[in-house]
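To: structure subgroup
Subject: Chain for Friday's discussion

All,

I'm putting the inputs and outputs inline so they're searchable in the archive.
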Amino acid sequence: MKYFVTIEDEKGKKIEVEVTAEVFEVFEEEKKLKERQRNERRHHYDKRGIEDYIIANEQSRFLKSAEDICIDRETIRKVLDRCTPTQRRRFCLNKIYGYRYEEIAKIEKCSINVVYKSISAVMKKIKKF
């Protein structure tokens, strides 16, 4: 299998270069890291807490009153407090920092199915609450 990355020369012209699988993986990890950093910067620019970030990304797109948002924030905080540390960590890695299930499984040295079940359990608790 051939791997290619796109780089810019000194004049800003984009060039496609064939690389090894290891180099390609480094470029892919760099892309993912930049995306996570963009998410974090947006999180800090907005001055939103974790609960607000989750609400904004997981709830419906309908406008909510300030009271509804406070209730949602409190609900998420209570649910996360009742979750195991592992569930909370995996949920935050996925929903806040943008890690995919495969990446979380690799980090935690477990199966993708286990990660999926952890995150699903938290989502069910949030919906049930």
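Points worth raising on Friday:
The chain has a mean pLDDT of 79.
The chain has six helices and two strands.

D.
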